Structure formats: C-alpha cells, structure tokens
C-alpha cells in the first residue's frame, strides 16, 4: 500500500483547492444568470399581460355598459361610461391637422367633430391647435387646458392621435400641407366624396377653421356616439383645472343649493351682436368701434332694439334679476356668475345684487394666489366656470351661445339636471309690457312661468329643420343618441315628443 508523505498531500491539496473554487464560482454565476433571466422573463410577461388586459377589458365588459335610461329625478348619479367602438385595424389615409377657432366651448365641440371626421376617413389626427388670435388672445395650448395623455389614450381603439406631425411633413423641411376650411354643417358624404380623395395627392390637410363643420343630424349613429365619447369622456381638463374647479363646487355646495347664471353681458358679446340696450351713448359708441376693429365682426349698421325684439340679444343684468324673481328663485339663493367681466362693472350688477345679495364670483371665493396661474388665460378661466356650471343646482344662461349649449348637453347627460332655456323673444315682450304698466307684477310672473314650463331641460327630441341647420337644435345641446338606447328612447322622451321636422 502506497503511503504518501505529508508534503505530497499538502501539494496536491494546494492544486485541488483552486480548481474547486473555480467550479463553485462558475456554479454561482450560472445560478445568478438563471435568476436574472427568469426575473426578466417574468416581468416581461407581466407587462404584456397588463397591456393585453388594458386593451381588451373594456370590450370584455362591454355587455355591462351601454346607453341606459337616465333618471330625471336623480341628478347626482353619474351615467355609465359610453362603450367604445370595436378596435380597428386600418390603413392610414393621411394626416389631419386642425386649428380650432373661437372660445373654449366652440373649440371643444369642434374637437369632437374633428375626431369623428378622422375616424370616418381613417386619418391620423394631430392634437388640435387652439385659437390664439381671437378677441380673447388666449395663448393656451391644448395641453394647458385638456389632459392630452388621457385624450390620446382614451381614443386609442378608435382614432390614432399624435402630438405632432412626422418630421418629413414639417414646414421646417419645406413641406406645405393643403390648407382649407371644410364646408359648414356637412354630413359624412361630403367628407367621403370631396375631402377623402384630396389625401391621395396631399398626405396632410390642415383645416384652418373647425366651427360647425359637421351636421347636427343625418350622421351615422356610431359617429354621433363617438362625438359624445370625445365630449363626455376623452376631453378632461388638466388636473390643476379639475382640482380648482372641484374646490369651487365644494365651497358653493357647503353653503347650500346654488344657481349658475351665465350672464353673457360681456364686452365682446355686446360688440359682436350690436346689442346696446341699457348702455350709455358713450358705451354704445365704444362697442361699435370695437366691432369695426375686427373685420370678421363687421357688418351693416346694427339697430340694437330690432335685434333685441327678435330675441337676439343677451339679457341685461337688470332684466336677469326680474326674470329670476319671476321664475320663483328666493332672495337668499346663491347666484354664481359664470362669465367674464360684466360690461359696465358693478354699476350694472347693482340691481341684481339688490334682488339676490348672495352673488359670488370666482375671485370672491378663491385666494388671489389660486387664480394667479389662470389670469390672462380666458379659456382656462372659462373651464373653471364650465365645471361649476355643470355641477350647479340650476343653470340659467342669458344667451344661447356655445357655452350655454355645451353645458346644457352635459347636464342632460348627467341626468337631465335643470337648465332653464330662456325664451328671450317672449321675455322681451313681457318685460316691455311690465315696464310700461300693461302687466302687473303678478301677471308678469305668471306669464314668465307659463312660457317656460317646457324649457327646463326635460328630455326632448332634437328639433330638425330641413336645410336650415343654424336654426335647428344644436347636437351638443341635446345629444339624444347618447342619452338612451333604441329600446328606452320612446319611454324617456315620450310618444308625444317626437322629432319635429320643419
């Protein structure tokens, strides 16, 4: 039997130990590598599962959504989300740029229309540009007012939306898109037959005006519902605007019910409409000069009293006070003035304050620092008023402009919350008869209430007037296609309240 010396054993051990260390080190590296690869694989699978879930879960649960009958009596119940259209796999026909014109709510409606047009024509929509050159000169961009990430993500299954054009189509590189305003009040045939062929030659088309470019009626049902999805769900205000608007609403609600009065007695409206009833001679001349300073407002000489008698002027603050009293509002009701600066200032608000002492405005409720960020941004200030107006106990607009119409439509969607649509032509007659002593106060009150019994925001079908789209009911004021489904519409609107075609 071979006997090794102690020195031989020591030498062999010294040779074996490094080899064993290397084996152990390689084993540890393999284990570490396997763990890292496994972790990466698991996280990749998890991310993919989350993405698939987000993509498909709205459709998995679409059977629980839909258009349900709104309760006229329950105002605070939020409606069910409007179901998305099926996700599409389509060939992009081109890029659509749009420059919205007008105030906040005119632009809001235009954005909804342009999303519908982009989907109809299989176009990629560039995030809309907002008006910066109008009377208000608001420098706000889209993402200063609306949550652009939510806007893009919430419509991802229906329309491809990008923040900017690809570089090859940039003006910096010499590319010139086709610029044009589409024809007003057009239906889908116009866009399919006249606009879509233009994209075969021009890959990018820029609509430089977007107000009322899509018809109220005669539009496919799926496009009407898409207009609602954009309006009610995709167009969310930025978190800062939402938070401050909700704070205003909480402060008002803590004090009790409140009326949002959209008192459109502002300088721009009076200049545009030529309405000077109640103004001094100097004020009337100032408004005239302002109108002539804007070429797109200029027209032949306006006779203010004729327009007023036709119901084409906003009510004055003094007239609004009398009407609110006649409609039964108590002296201690809160009145939130949802508008900009009233022309004539506090002097013109005096009669309204006497009738309703609890008049409040944004700057009376909030600290100066809270509004500083929104100063000189009229559209952002209008967004705050929009939030308050849609949440108020009652909404009363003194003029049927874009804000009045869009807010009315939102309040219908939120459960037909009371919106008093003033019949100004009838009211002017009654006001004049009351002022000249023909009608007593009680007779005036009775006549005002009787003439507005059916104008409180109840469910009604939209009025259609053939070949006169400007005179028919505006889609966004009464988007009836989005307030019920075909089985519940008759119950909701009633058999005697069918669409009137004139």
From TrEMBL:
CDD domains per UniProt: O-FucT_plant
Gene3D superfamilies reported in the protein's UniProt record: 3.40.50.11350
Annotated membrane topology is: Single-pass type II membrane protein
UniProt keywords, alphabetically: Carbohydrate metabolism, Fucose metabolism, Glycoprotein, Glycosyltransferase, Membrane, Signal-anchor, Transferase, Transmembrane, Transmembrane helix
Q: Which domain of life is it from?
A: Eukaryota
Q: What pathway is it annotated to?
A: Glycan metabolism
Offer a single GO CC term for the protein: membrane
Task: Write one Gene Ontology MF term.
Answer: glycosyltransferase activity
Q: Which spans are transmembrane here? A: 32-53
Record localization = Membrane
Name the GO terms of the biological process aspect: fucose metabolic process
Please give the family membership noted in the entry: Belongs to the glycosyltransferase GT106 family.
* Protein name, as recorded: O-fucosyltransferase family protein
Q: Which organism is it from?
A: Anisodus tanguticus
Q: Species lineage, top-down?
A: Eukaryota, Viridiplantae, Streptophyta, Embryophyta, Tracheophyta
């Amino acid at each position: 039997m071979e006997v090794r010396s102690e020195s031989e054993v020591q030498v062999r051990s010294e040779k074996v130990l490094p080899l064993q260390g290397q084996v152990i080190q390689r084993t540890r590296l393999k284990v570490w590598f396997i763990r890292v690869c496994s972790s990466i694989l698991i996280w990749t699978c998890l991310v993919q599962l989350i993405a698939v879930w987000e993509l498909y879960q709205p459709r998995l649960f679409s059977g629980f959504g839909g258009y349900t009958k709104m309760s006229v009596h329950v105002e605070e119940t939020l409606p069910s989300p409007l179901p998305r259209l099926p996700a599409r796999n389509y060939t992009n026909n081109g890029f659509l740029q749009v420059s919205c014109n007008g105030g906040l709510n005119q632009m809001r409606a235009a954005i909804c229309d342009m999303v519908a047009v982009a989907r109809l024509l299989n176009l990629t929509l560039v995030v809309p540009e907002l008006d910066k050159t109008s009377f208000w000169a608001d420098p706000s961009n889209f993402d200063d007012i609306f949550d652009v990430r939510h806007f893009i993500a919430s419509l991802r299954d229906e329309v491809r939306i990008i923040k900017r054009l690809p570089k090859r189509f940039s003006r910096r590189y010499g590319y010139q898109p086709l610029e044009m305003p589409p024809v007003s009040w057009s239906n889908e045939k116009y866009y399919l037959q006249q606009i879509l062929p233009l994209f075969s030659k021009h890959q990018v088309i820029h609509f430089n005006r977007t107000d009322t470019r899509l018809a109220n009626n005669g539009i496919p049902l799926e496009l009407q519902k898409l207009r609602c999805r954009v309006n009610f769900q995709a167009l969310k205000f930025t978190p800062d605007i939402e938070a401050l608007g909700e704070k205003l609403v909480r402060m008002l609600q803590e004090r009790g019910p409140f009326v949002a009065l959209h008192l459109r007695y502002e300088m721009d409206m009076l200049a545009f409409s030529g309405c000077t009833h109640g103004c001094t001679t100097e004020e009337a001349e100032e408004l005239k000069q302002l109108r002539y300073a804007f070429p797109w407002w200029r027209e032949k000489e306006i006779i203010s009293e004729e327009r007023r008698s036709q119901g084409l002027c906003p009510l004055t603050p003094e007239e609004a006070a009398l009407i609110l009293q006649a409609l039964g509002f108590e002296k201690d009701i809160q009145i939130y003035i949802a508008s900009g600066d009233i022309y004539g200032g506090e002097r013109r608000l005096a009669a309204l304050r006497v009738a309703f002492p609890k008049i409040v405005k944004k700057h009376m409720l909030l600290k100066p620092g809270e509004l500083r960020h929104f100063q000189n941004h009229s559209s952002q200030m209008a967004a705050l008023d929009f939030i308050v107006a849609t949440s108020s106990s009652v909404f009363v607009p003194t003029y049927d402009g874009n804000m009045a119409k869009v807010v009315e439509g939102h309040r219908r969607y939120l459960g037909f919350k009371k919106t008093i649509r003033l019949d100004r032509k009838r009211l002017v007659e009654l006001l004049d008869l009351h002022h000249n002593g023909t009608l007593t106060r009680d007779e005036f009150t009775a006549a005002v209430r009787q003439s507005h019994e059916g104008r409180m925001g109840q469910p009604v079908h939209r009025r259609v007037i053939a070949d006169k789209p400007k005179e028919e009911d505006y889609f966004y004021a009464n988007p009836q296609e989005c307030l019920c489904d075909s089985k519940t519409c008759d119950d909701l609107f009633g058999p005697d309240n069918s669409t009137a075609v004139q």
